[in-house]
Amino acid sequence: MPLPTPFHSRTAACCTSQSWQEWSGYLAANSYQMEHIQEYIAVRTGSALFDVSPLYKYHLRGRDAARLLDRVVTRDVSKCRTGQVIYTAWCDDDGKIIDDGTLARVGEDFFRLTAAIPTLDWLQQNALAMQVEIEDVSPDYGALALQGPTSRALLQSLVEGDISDLGYFRIVDEKIAGVPLRISRTGFTGDLGYELFVEAEHAETLWDALLEHGLDYQMRPAGLQALDMARIEAGLVQLDADFTSTRQTIFDAQRNTPYELGLGWTVKLGKDFFVGQEALRAEKARGPALQTVGIVIDLAGVESAYSKFGMPLHLPYTSWNEATPIYSDGDRRNQVGKATSGTWSPILKQYVAMTRLKPQNAALGSRVYIEQSIEGKRFAVPAQVVAMPFFDPPRKRGDANTPNTPGNSGGSA
Amino acid sequence: MANYDILIVGAGHNGLVAAAYLAKAGQRVLVLEKQPGVGGAAVSEELSPGYHFSTCADGTGYLAPEIQKDLGLAGRGLSILPADPVVFAPLPDGNHLTFWRDTARTAGEIERLSKRDAERYPAFVELMGRVATVVGGIARITPPDLPDVGLGDLRAMLPLAGPLRGLGRKHVSDLLRILPMPVADLLDEYFESDALKGAIAASAVRDITWGPQEAGTAYTFLYNWALAGTGLFRSAGVVKGGMGALTKSLAAAASALGAEIRTDAAVERILVEAGRAAGVLLAGGERIEAPLLVSNADPRSTFLELLDPTLQSARTVQHVRNIKYRGSAARIHLALSELPEFTSLAANEAPSRLCGAIQIAPSLTYLQRAYDCVKYGEFSPRPYLDLSIPTLLDPGLAPDGHHILSITAKYAPYSLRDGDWETRREAFVKTVLDTLAEYAPKIRDLVVHQHVFTPIDLEERFSLPEANPHHGEMTLDQFLHMRPIPGHARYRAPLPGLYLCGAGAHPGGNVTGLPGRNAAREILADKR
Amino acid sequence: MQNYDAIVVGGGHNGLTCAAYLAKAGRKTLVLERRHQVGGAAVTEEIHPDFRYTMCSYVVSLLRPEVIQELELAKHGLHLIPYETSFCPMENGDSFASYPDAASSREELLRHSKHDAEAMPRFSNMMYDMAFAVKPILGAVPPDPAYPGLRGLRTLKDLGKHIQGLGTDRFHQLSKIMTMSVSDFLDEWFESPIIKALMGLNGIIGTKLGPKSPGTAYVLLHHYMGELDGAFTAWGWQRGGTGGVSDAIASAARSHGAEIRVNSPVAQVLVENGKAVGVVMENGDEIRAKTVVSGADPRVTFRKLVEEKELPDDFVAAIDRFKFRGSSGKVNLSLDTLPEFPSMRDPGLIRGMTEICPSMDYLERAYDDANYGGFSKRPYMDIVIPSTIDPTMAPPGKHVMSIFVQYAGYDMPEYGDHNQQREAFGNAVVDTLSEFAPNLKDIILHRQVLTPWDLEQEIGLSEGNIFLGELTLDQLFFFRPAPGWADYRTPIRNYYQCGSGTHPGGGITAGPGRLAALEILRAGK
Prior knowledge:
heterotrimer; B: alpha/beta; FAD/NAD(P)-binding domain; 7-stranded mixed β-sheet; C: alpha/beta; 17 helices; 18 strands; 37% helix
C-alpha cells in the first residue's frame, strides 16, 4: 500500500478529484481539482504549493562528506559554499546517469542531497573508508515546493526573519508559525520559487499556515500534472520521463549520459577523480552520440493532419511522457531521435517537446518531424529545433526588484 | 638517487620470481619488502633455539621446473630433497594407506582396503595425469580476456595445444566435465573405499575453505596434481634448509641478475600521477619513482590500501570487496625430542613411511564433517591434520636426534562466531593434539616446544588477509578470467603502469612462481 | 500387431509434449503410460475422499511460452491462477512477506532492511538480465564438445557470438552465477538473513546441495527463468491441480491424433540390429514403431528399458555415474480448517506460498542432516494451500495443504524400514511446521507422506529426483545426460530421449519434450 506523506491529512482534504498516483511509495495528487489547468496557471501567475515529500533526502555529515560527494557527483563540491545549493547529476563508471538532484551545503561538513531514486546504498558503497555519516532522512522530513511569482511575498509574510534577499540556489533556516524549516530557493518549475523542508511532525502546521495566508497571494495546492507541464516549459529533464537511471535499467539502449541529456554543464572534468570521469572525458572528446534539444511543433502541421479527418486542431490536454519518434523527413523514412516529453504551453501558446536527437539534426533552427497518430493513422508533423528552457522569466533568478512580468528570456523559436 | 624501470612491492616468492625475470630481460628492478627478510609466506624461522620451521608455506616441490632452470636456482642454494612415499595416511582401525610414486606399489597398498579400487587406481592415475597436464598448461597462460577473445588470445593459448593433444580428443569432454566437479563426486566415480577417497581428496581442500563435496574442488585437486611434480595429487619432499632456503635462492638469483632488493622498506602508498602509477611512498616518507609498478601484495591490500580507494572506479571497488578470502587453517609447530610413533606403523617402518606428507583425514565423510563447522563459524571438533616431519629428510633442521613436526590444522575459520582466537586458541590446540594422539598416542610426551599460529596470527605475521594463503580463494568464481577481479585477470591493474604478480592473480596459490613469471612475461610484452 | 511412426514411453509432461509435437507433424504416435493416469510427477489424485492432492509437483511457472502457444494449451484446459504472495515466518516470531506490487513489497523490505529494499529492484533486473543471457543456451540443442560436427560448430559459434554480445559486465556476472553458491551470491546483494533465506531457497529446490554449496546460484537462475521469462511472471497454480497441465498437453496431443494408453507398462524397448523397432509390454505384447522415445529418466531409459549389450561401455559408464540423489519429499494434508500462523501480519497471505526457511543457516543445517544419510530434523518447507484459491480441491471450509519438503534421503536406514522412515519423516515435518502454526496437529484429517523412495516407487523417478538428474554444472548442457548424447539421440538408432534428464532440465518446462520432438522430426523420422 502506498504510504501517506506527512502532509497527507491536509492534501487529502484538498484533493476533491481523488486522483492520486504512487510516487516512490507515497501517495501524490495528480491534481487537486478535476481540472488541473488552474493549478498550472497558479505556477505562472500566483503560487502553487506542491507536496514533494516523496523525494529521497539524505544527510551527509563528517570530515569526508565533501570528499565522498566529490567522488560521486559530477559537479565540483569544493566550490559549493555553505548556504549554497547546487544541481548535479551522478553517474556510474561508464558515465551513464544514475540520477540528478540538488545538493545543499548546510554547514562546512554537512550536506543534504535530494534524489529521485533510493541512493543510500550507492552512497555507502562509495564511502569506502571515509569518515562520513550517511543518514536517510526521507521519512523524517516533509517537503513542499512553493513556486510562482508571488511565492517570495507570501513566504516573506510568514517567516520570522527575512528571506526577501535569499539568492537563487541559496538556503536559509527559518521559522514559520513557530516551526523550524529549511528554505532553499530552488524548484522544478523554472519560476521564482522555494522548497521548504520541515520535520515530519511539524508538516501539518506549516501547511496550515501557508493555506491560511495563501489565498491573499493567489496560491493553491497543485498536483503532478501541473508540475509536469511547468517543468517541461522550464526544459528540466525528469527521471522516468526523459531518461532512466542506469541503476534501474537492464539494457544498454536505455542508458544515457549527462552530455546526451543536456546536463554536460554539470560535468566538471577538471576536478579530481569522480565515478564516471574517464568515460565522460572520452565522450566529451569524441562528442556525445545524442543531444537533448527542444522542439516547437508546427500548429499548422498538426491542424493539417487533423483536417484530413475533417477534424479541427486538437492539442493534448495534459503533458505526455511517451517516447515518440522524430524524423528528419516528412515521409518518416529516417528516424533521427525521439521526443521524451511534450506539452501544450498555455503561457507560451506553443506546443513544445523535449527531444534527444542525433547531433547533425540538433542544430538550432533545424527542421524535424514528429510522429503523431490520429485515429490509428500516423503522420509526420513539422517542428523546429529551439533552445531550452522554453520559458525562463527573469524573476526566476532575479531579486525582489526584478519586474514581475510574464516575460521570457528563454529560447524562443 | 638511482633510477629504476620497475618497482616491485613485496619480496614474496612471486615478487622475487618476477624481479628475476625482469632483471634478466635487462630491466632495472627494485624490490621493496617491509619485513627484515625476503620470502613473504615462504620463510624458515628458528622458532626455538636449534629448531628451524617453515612457519607458514610448506608446499615444497610446486615451484615450476622451468623457473628453477631459467633462474639457475640449483646453483644458488636450492636443493629439493624428494620424498617417497608422497602420502602416509593412518586410519583409525590401525590400518594405513601409503601412496608411493610407483603406481603399482600404491595399488598394492590399496588392495588392503578394496580389491576393486586397487584395480581401478592405475587407470585413475593415468587419466588424471593427462587431465592435470592440461590444467598445468592453463596455469602457464595469461587468461583470455573473456568474453572478447581476440586472435592474440588464441596465440597465447598455444601452450595448451600440446597437453590437449596428449589428453586426446575423446577426453575433452572429461576435462570440461571434471573441472567444475566436487572432488568427492569425481572419486565416487572410481572408488568405493571412503578411506581411500578421503586420503586422495584431502590435499584438494588443504588450502581452501571448502569440503570435498563442493563443486570446484576437483579443480584444486588437479591444480595440485599438475604442479606437484610427483606424478600424483600432491608434492612431497623438503627444501634443504626449509622453505626460506627456496626464497633465498630466488633472491640470490634476482640479485645476481641485477635486481636490487631492499628489506625493512614498507610501502605505504602507491603514487599516482596523471592517471598512471608513478612510484611509491615508503613508511618513512621516502619517495621512490619508477614508470612501472608491480604488486606482490594481495588484491585487497593493493587496491584498497596501497592505492587510495577513493580514486578507484566503483566497479573495481565492488569487485575487490567481493573477493572471497576466508582462510580456515592454523599452523602448529612442534619441536619433538624423538620421532613420534604411529600405532598403525611398526617402529622400523616409520622413517621410510613418514618422510612425505602425513594426513589425518581418514575418510571423505570425516573431511566433509570437519568442513561443516566452518559454515557456522566454529572450528572442527575432529579436524583434518596435514603433517610433515621435514627432519627425516633434512636432519639439520633440529638438534641431533630431535625432530620437528609442522601441522596444518583444518578447519579453523578466520571468523569465529563465538569468542575469538585469543580465547579459543588453547581449546583448538587441545583438539588438534587430542586428534593427533588418537594416531600417535605418545605425541604429547615428546613435545619440547610448541608454536601456534592461529588464522589471526597468520594474517598479521604474513600479510595474508583473513589468513588465506592464496590471496583469495581458489574457487570457480575466482578462477581464470575472474582472478583476481573480473576484467583484470591479465596481470594489468585498472591503473595504467600497475601490475599484479601475487597469488591473487592467475593461476593462484602454492609456491609455484607462476603468477610472478606470467606477470613478468606480460610486463615485458607491454614494454616492447 | 499395430504399426506406429513413434512410440513414447512414459506419459509425463515431457513425453506428452513430445507426442503432441510428433502427432502435430503428422506422425502416428502412441504414448504408453504405466500408471492409471498420465502426468508422471504432474498429477492430481484423490487419495483422501473429497480431498484432491497434487501429488508431487505443485506449482507451475517454468512452462515454456512457445509450448503453450504452439500446442494451444489454453484451449486444452491450461488455466493458471497466480500465487501472489510469499510468507516466511521467522524464529523470533516476526515474519517476512513479499507481495505482487512494488509498494507493498518495498514497505515490507524496509521493515527488515533499508539496504535490501534498495537492492531488490536492481537484483531483479540483474536476474532478468541473466535469464536473458542464458535463454539462447536453453533453447539450443547441445552438441558433442569433442566431436561437434558442422551443425554443432554452428551452434557453438552462435552461442559464442551471443555470449560476446553480452559484454564484459554481464559475462562476468554470468560467470559468477554459474559457479557460486546461492548464499555467497546473495551476500553480494543483501544483508538481511531472512531476505537472503527467502531469495535463496530457489537455489536448493530439487537439489541435494545446501545453499552454501557452489552451483546453487545456477539453480536459483533456473527457477528465475520461469518467473521472468516464462509466460506467467509468477508461480502459478493450475486449476484442478498440476495434473491439469498434463491433461491439457494430453488433450492437445490427442487433438492431433496421438493415441494415449494408460495402465500400459512397457517392459523393454525392442532393439534389432542396433535399431529400436518397438516395445514389449509387461504383458508380453509387442508394439512396433519406426521410432521409440523415452520420457523416463536416463537410468530407466538406458539401464532398464534396453539391454547393456546394445550400448557402448563408456556410455554405460556415463549413465551409471549420472547423479540423481533425490532430496525432496512431499507431505499432503487434509485439513479441517485453516492453519493459524501467529506471525502472519496480513491474513490474506494464507492464500499465497508459505516458506519455512527462517535463515540460510537453517537451510544449511537442514542439508547437513540429510548429507549423512538421514532427513532434516527441521526441514525446509514450501507450502501452498490450493483450496484457498481453487474450490475444486476440497469441500467448502476444508482445505488441502501441499508441503514440499527438503531434505530427505533416498534411503534412511537409521529410521528402520521404508514405512518407518516415511512415518518418522512425516512426523518431523508436522512437528516443525507446528512450531510456526501451533494449531496444525489438531486440524489434520489425513496425511500422505512421500519420501524420495516413494517417489521412485510411485512415479518411477530414480532415487526420487524430481529433476530426473541433478542440475549441477557437470550435468548440464553438453553433459545432460552424457557427453556426446545430449542431442536427444542415443547410441541406439531410432531410440530417442525426451525427459527432464536431457537439456534444459527439470521442472514443468516441456522444453526437453519439445526440443526432442523437433530433433526427431529434423532427422526425418
